[in-house]
Amino acid sequence: MDRTLLIALASFSAVTLAGCAAMRTGADEAAIRAKAIDAMKTSFKEKGQAKLDRLNQDETQALCSQYAGKELPKDVAATIEKSNLASIRYPQDGKLVGDWKRGERIAQDGRGFQYSDDPKGPVGANCYACHQLTKQEISFGTMGPSLYNFGKLRGYTDEMRRYAWGKVYNSQAYSACTNMPRFGHAKILNEQQMRDVVALLMDPASPVNQ
Ligand code: HEC
């Protein structure tokens, strides 16, 4: 089963689950959640690089599922952001900005993790699935805010370059339970790809900033 479908099914089940669980106690809820995960694990088939371990949630994802459809308490959000912030790795040579042209190709590319893709990579980031980035590209999703003129509006400062790196590396560090993937943390992008995507946002010559 491809990854998109897996994710779609997983979120469908999570929503259904949250609906059913609305009237129940915490213990009931935990039992139902365990049963649903079990049902997913027994009904999904592994194919190629798409393994069932993709259904295993880390601590952040488990907490976010627990509060899906409910208001996320401030202290839980703070705990999630703190631990994700601590997980961000910056490059040893301090170089955060690569080549925006390669970054643009990565932002356009949504392939790499499907069962039918070459597991040796590279993997795309599919930023356009959720964000507007340039004026030229008129096909983009709107789940995330427009990033058009990101660097120009925020300023080409070291602080903003570090924020851009950190946000792409681990989005949960700045916004608990966001829908944005954690590109560095989840090893979707490697260090050079991270630099190239940061360049797309932060290089004054990038079409994002024209
Ligand atoms: C599945 C949807 C999704 C994808 C894919 C995605 N994002 Fe996001 N992104 C979001 C959402 C939703 C937000 C707003 C909530 C938040 O801040 O996390 C966001 C916020 C951001 C922000 C913060 C904007 C601000 O005002 O500070 C940046 C920067 C960003 N995304 C960059 C990227 C880049 C670069 C990529 C590709 C490498 C990407 N995003 C891929 C959903 C996505």
How would you describe what is shown here?
By secondary structure, the chain is mainly alpha-helical. It has two domains: 3-56, no CATH class; 100-209, Cytochrome Bc1 Complex, Chain D, domain 2. 46% of the residues lie in helices and 0% in strands. The protein has eight helices and no strands. It has helices at 3-21, 26-43, 59-66, 74-86, 100-108, 150-154, 158-169, 191-202. Helix 1 packs antiparallel against helix 2, helix 5 (100-108) packs across helix 8 and helix 7 (158-169) crosses helix 8. It is globular, with a radius of gyration of 18 Å. Residues 1-16 have low confidence and may be disordered. Heme C binds at residues 107, 125-127, 129-131, 143-145, 147, 164, 167-168, 171, 174-175, 178-181, 183, 197, 201. Heme C (HEC) binds at residues 107, 125-127, 129-131, 143-145, 147, 164, 167-168, 171, 174-175, 178-181, 183, 197, 201.
